[in-house]
Design goal:
Blueprint (H helix, E strand, L loop, with lengths): L2 E3 L1 H6 L15 E3 L11 E4 L4 H12 L4 H13 L21 E7 L4 E8 L5 H11 L4 E3 H10 L10 H12 L19 H4 L6 E6 L5 E7 L20 E4 L3 E7 L1 H7 L1 H10 L4 H16 L16 E7 L4 E8 L2 E5 L4 E5 L1 E5 L1
Parallel strand pairs: 5-6, 12-15
Antiparallel strand pairs: 1-2, 3-7, 3-13, 4-5, 4-8, 7-8, 9-10, 10-11, 11-12, 13-14
Helix pairs in contact: 2-3, 9-10
């Protein structure tokens, strides 16, 4: 059962270090217990990652490396044309081209790899792993990332599905009543397209094996209708993903620009290293981000609350896990070694 508490109670509990600068947080909700099920093996992911955690756990049980396990998990979502925030069928940039970002990080070797703004390759997470394994680079972008992928046997394909193309076209038509486009009547929108016009997302997946080794991956099609070449937090180590094998792993989904400014995944892992639980660390960092957003009038409303979405996920070396959202209630995917299901995430503001 979720536990509702006031911000004062939360601070008194010692869950947040120091005095937070953000005033007026109306409520904080704690998620489900963070360490249950079989000891050792864990796989957690964002809310669209239930199939990913199931696949990752299957491989972890078979003795796979934790990074291989979580990449195989997110590949399912990258290949799914119905998830319009990742991989094949992802929502395109303003010119109708799908550009993908991904990063991976391997706990035992503290190695990472990433690609940004890559086109025509539906599994950027696989390419990111090759960057880690076959180069001394951390990040390859754009045309260079595509050429790298092709050199290693990947094949170009059109990532724009009919549904994502239709969503892009409807967005173009609705931009202004003064341009050359007429907006289509609502009845002309295919099922799911109107909803996709305001959809954004990513998938993050973190895994822990029986030896206590960690791996993580974040992959996305990025902000829909973005300027060509825009890169968010997903391929930035320390922002969209961070793994320290001695402590834990963290990842994010949501408004990437703000997350880059706050290097949130790195800070969450550091907070766990200072003794916070994964959920406490995610909430502390979310509070910090909300506080910083008050400095920029573009990032908050008249009430001072952030006007963007953000979600954090964390897993420590002991197998404890947690997540926090800017706005809730919301859920995230967890396979605790015994069962795969959705868990309640903590959050700062109630929707």
């Amino acid at each position: 059962m979720s536990l509702k508490t006031t911000r004062r109670d939360f601070l008194r509990s010692g869950a947040v270090l120091g005095t937070a600068a953000l005033a007026g947080i109306p409520s904080l909700r704690a998620g489900a217990p963070s360490a249950v099920g079989a000891p050792g093996l864990r796989a957690i992911a964002s809310g669209n990652g239930l199939r990913a955690t199931d696949k990752a756990m299957e491989l972890l049980r078979a003795g796979a490396d934790p990074l291989d396990a979580v990449i195989a998990g997110v590949n399912i979502v990258e290949d799914d044309p119905n998830d319009m925030s990742v991989g094949y069928g992802g929502l395109p940039n303003e010119e109708g081209e799908v550009e993908l970002d991904a990063s991976v990080m391997h706990g035992p070797t503290h190695a990472s790899g990433a690609v940004a703004a890559i086109k025509h390759i539906r599994n950027p997470s696989k390419v990111a792993k090759l960057v880690m394994e076959r180069t001394n680079h951390c990040l390859i972008a754009g045309e260079g990332a595509l050429k790298f992928a092709l050199a290693y046997g990947f094949h170009k394909e059109d990532l724009l599905t009919e549904k994502s193309r239709e969503a892009w076209l409807r967005w173009k038509e609705s931009l202004s009543d003064k341009d050359a486009w007429y907006e289509a009547p609502a009845k002309d929108f295919p099922t799911g397209v109107r909803e996709a016009l305001s959809t954004y997302g990513t998938i993050n997946c973190l895994g822990l094996d029986a030896k206590g080794d960690l791996g993580g991956v974040t992959t996305t099609s990025g902000l829909s209708w973005k300027r060509p070449g825009r890169v968010g937090d997903s391929p930035i180590i320390g922002a969209g993903l961070y793994v320290d094998n001695a402590i834990g792993a963290a990842g994010s989904t949501g408004f990437g620009e703000v997350n880059i400014l706050n290097l949130s995944s790195f800070h969450i892992v550091q907070l766990m290293g200072q003794g916070m639980s994964p959920e406490q660390a995610c909430l502390k960092q979310m509070e910090r981000v909300a506080d910083k957003a008050r400095l920029n009038p573009r990032l908050h409303g008249p009430d001072g609350k952030p006007n963007f979405g953000m979600s954090y996920y964390a897993l420590n070396k002991k197998g404890e896990f947690g997540a926090a959202m800017m706005t809730g209630p919301a859920k995230f995917a967890v396979h605790d070694g015994t069962a795969n299901g959705m868990r309640d995430a903590a959050y700062l503001f109630k929707a």
